[in-house]
Each structure stands twice: as structure tokens, then as C-alpha cells.
Amino acid sequence: MANIIKVQKGTKDILPDEMPLWHKMEENARKIFSNAGYNEIRTPVFEATELFSRGVGDTTDIVNKEMYTFEKSERSLTLRPENTAGVVRAFIENGMHRLSAPVKLWYKGPMFRYERPQAGRQRQFHQVGVEMFGIKDPSADAEVIQLAAAYLNSLGLNDLEVEINSLGCPECREEFKNKLKTVLKPHFNLLCEDCQKRYEKNPLRLLDCKVGSCKEIFDKPEIKEVIQGDFICDECREHFELLKQYLAALDIKYSVNKLLVRGLDYYNRTVFEIKSNNLGSQNAVCGGGRYDSLVKNLGGEDTPAIGFAMGMERLYSLMEPVNAEKLDVYIVSDNKAETLKLVKYLRENNKSVDFDFNSKKFTKQMEKASKIANYAVILGEDEISSGTVSVKNLSTSQQITISRAELISSI
Ligand code: ATP
Ligand code: MG
In the predicted model, is pLDDT for residue 126 greater than 90? Predict the structure, then answer.
């Protein structure tokens, strides 16, 4: 026997019996986001590598360790690890800044990161997300967070915690970074290897280090004081205060987490995460924030923006199973020609229908019908000779014999 080729580590088949929940995630996204004025966009799965090194940031784990990068015709290409950079590229390339603000877009699709696979962490996974361009006002931040919450609620997920933080603007953040570096300097040698690199390149990113020994350092009183201190400038503070007021008005419960800096370089001011208490250590279902300088950094007109992305596999694992939808009709018969004709007729009339290819015994066919369909349509010799059908309602067990013309309206 030939070797069996297996699915790649960190990737998964999504099988037919998992589809009802995937369809629900997709349909609810389309419904809820389009009701809020978001239009769907689909960007390519691979892009120029430079889009991510500039767009996501070359001090991030994603760009440094996790990208699937390959060469073709001397061009460096990368499978998208996230979709914000791609959406921003499309926004710029298609001149969408000329549209009246806000420009609201949503997407869903596969993303690729070379990570260590574990529960809630795959190498090919799916995200659904939104991006809103052109609005600086904190009401945009509130709307986007509200939209995330509404979508999660629509999937039946309620036991969630919203965490927010403000990263300030490049100006006020600079001062904070310097303070942070000063207090951390005496402990530099105790920081993990990654954090020692971050110390120079991107000290803010130190704060979301998951290594225990680093966390201990951040807990030291003199360092905690800096981290928990209020570094943001007046304008950034007003933005954050207004956001909090709007969230309160929307009845969205949140907590401020000063360690929340998010993995990507492009954020400023508002960042947020939504976590579930029912997932293990990979407990973030949604991450997002404001990225006012990204459009300009990637060569577009200066355009403020904010968005979020959710991990669909993590949403899936939190959703209650739904029953697969039943067929309208299962045909019970041993006459193939008549059955095929009736199947064709029913499908032309938009009824979902199936039948038994193997001409099993009537009782077997009936058993199958009651499992997968709402009605059994029986085509025995009597029915065929008289041009009728017997229709059995499988939930009430009532059976009637009617003409074929009456069939469509009675199921
Ligand atoms: P994490 O802290 O879990 O690594 P992240 O900050 O890298 O998340 P983002 O880039 O913000 O994640 O992506 C948004 C969401 O996408 C996450 O909250 C998570 O639900 C999901 N996600 C991210 N990476 C993976 C992965 N490797 N496998 C499955 N889902 C993922
Ligand atoms: Mg990650």
C-alpha cells in the first residue's frame, strides 16, 4: 500500500460536521457587520514580504519568527500572518481615501503563522475582522468595540472580558519608553533573551512578555510604579476618557490593563483585547486597536484607522453545537427511475431532498428518513400507478396521500 500523506502539523481539515458552526460564524459576520455599514473585502493570501515587515513591524514575533516566506522569480513573498496590512495596502492602492469617511471594511479568511501548535494555536488558522478608516474621534473606538461584543454575543458567547489600554501617541510614548528603560536597566541581565532585544528596539513590547522571570521583574515596586503610572499626554488622555464614557454608555463592562500592549508595532492610543474565561491559556478571542500612522507609513494619505481581528478556531471551540439542518424530504422507494424524476422535480422547486441509492428495505429507508428529514415521501407501486405520493410528517407521524401537484405546497 502506498504511504498515507497526512495533514501538516498545525493545520486542520474543517470537516462537514463542523460546518454548521462555521457557517454561523460567517453568516453572522456578514449580517452584523453589514448592518453596521461595513463592506466585505477579500485580499490575496500572499503579499510582498515587505508589506509585513513595514506594516506589522520588524521587531514583532510575527515578522521575526512566524512568517511563511518564500522566493518566486527573485521576489520575496509571504503568506499573510494577519490581514490588516493587506487591507491597508488595498485601501491605498484603490484610492479609498477619496471615499467619504468612514470607510468600513470587514474580512474573513485563513492566516499563517509558524508557531508552536497547541490548543487554540495553529499554523493555518482563520480570522474574521473589521477595519474602519478616516475617523479620529473616540466614538469610532467605542463603535468598533461594541461591534466586536455584538458579534460575539450573536454567537452565544457571553462569559467574556474586555480589556482596554491606551498606548498614547508617538510623542508621549517616547518619554514612557525612556522611563521604562531607566528602571529596567539594573535588571537587564535577568530579562529573557527576547526582552533584551526588545529593550533597545521596542521597550513597550517588554510588557506583554509571557516569561515568568520577566513578569517578576515587572512586579518590583519601582517598576510597577512606572508601568501603572499615567504617562499619556492630555490629548491622548481625553481620547481615552471619552472612550471609557462611551463604553459605559453602551453598557460594556471593561477593565484597564496597563500591561496590554498587543503584539503588533502599529498601534497607538486605544488597544483592546477580549478574553474568554472558558479557554485555556490561549484565552484571547479578539485583539484590536487604533493604528493612526499605518496608512501613511505604507505610503498612503495620512488616515486614522482602527480595527480588530478574532480567531475563528477559538470562537468555534466556545460555541454550543447546533444541530445540522434536516432535509425537507427523504424519498422512500425502490423504483430508481421514478425516484430520480421526483428528486429532480423537488430540487427544481427548491426543496432539499435525498434518497437511498442502494434500494434497502422500506423499513431501513424509513429509519434513515426519520433521522435526517422532516418528511418521508413514499413512492410505492400503488402511488406510482395512481400518480400520487404518500407524505409522512416525521415529527407527527401523520401520513397523507396526495397528488404530485399538491406535494410542493404541502411540505
Ligand atoms: P496570541 O496572544 O494568542 O498569540 P496575538 O496577539 O498573536 O494572539 P492577533 O495577532 O491579535 O493575536 O490576532 C487576533 C486573534 O487571532 C487572537 O486573539 C486569536 O484569537 C487569534 N489567533 C492569533 N494567532 C493564532 C493562532 N496561531 N492560532 C489560532 N488563533 C490565533
Ligand atoms: Mg501571537
Answer: yes
Give ∠ CA 333-410-323 in degrees, rounded to 5.
75
Give the integer Cα–Cα distance in Å for 106 and 33: 7
From the CA of 120, the nearest ligand is 1
pLDDT at 359: 82
Burial of 303-315, coded b for 16+ CB within 10 Å and e otherwise, reads bbbbbbbbbbbbb
Q: Please, which residues bridge with residue 50 across strands?
A: none
Cβ of residue 129 lying under 6 Å from some atom of ligand 1? no
Contact present, 322 and 24 (Cβ < 8 Å): yes
Residue 89 grid coordinates: 495596502
How far is the C-alpha of 360 from the C-alpha of 358, rounded, in Å?
5
Interatomic CA distance for residues 387 and 92, integer angstroms: 64
3-state secondary structure of 353: strand
User: Does the beta carbon of 285 sit less than 6 angstroms from any atom of ligand 1?
Assistant: yes
Instruction: Find the mean pLDDT for residues 100-122.
Output: 96
pLDDT of residue 280: 79
DSSP character at residue 3: P
Whether residue 60 has pLDDT greater than 90: no
Residue 179 DSSP SS3: helix
Instruction: Please tell me if the CB atom of residue 313 comes closer than 6 angstroms to any atom of ligand 1.
Output: yes
Of 29, 117, 124, whose CA–CA distance to 81 is shortest? Answer: 124
Q: How many other CB atoms are there within 10 angstroms of residue 380's CB atom?
A: 15
* Atom of ligand 1 at shortest range from CA of 129: 14
Q: What is the mean pLDDT of residues 128-144?
A: 98
CA–chain centroid gap for 289, Å, is 15
The residue whose grid cell reads 434500494 is 359
Using CA atoms, how far residue 44 sits from 14, 47, 309, in Å, is 21, 7, 17
Cβ contact 45:80 at 8 Å: yes
Rounded-to-integer distance, Cα 311 and Cα 128, Å: 7
Nearest CA to ligand 1 atom 5: 263
Task: Return the C-alpha torsion angle 238, 261, 146, 315, nearest 10.
Answer: 180
Residue identified by cell 490588516 is 84
Q: Is 311 in the pocket of ligand 1 (CB under 6 A)?
A: yes
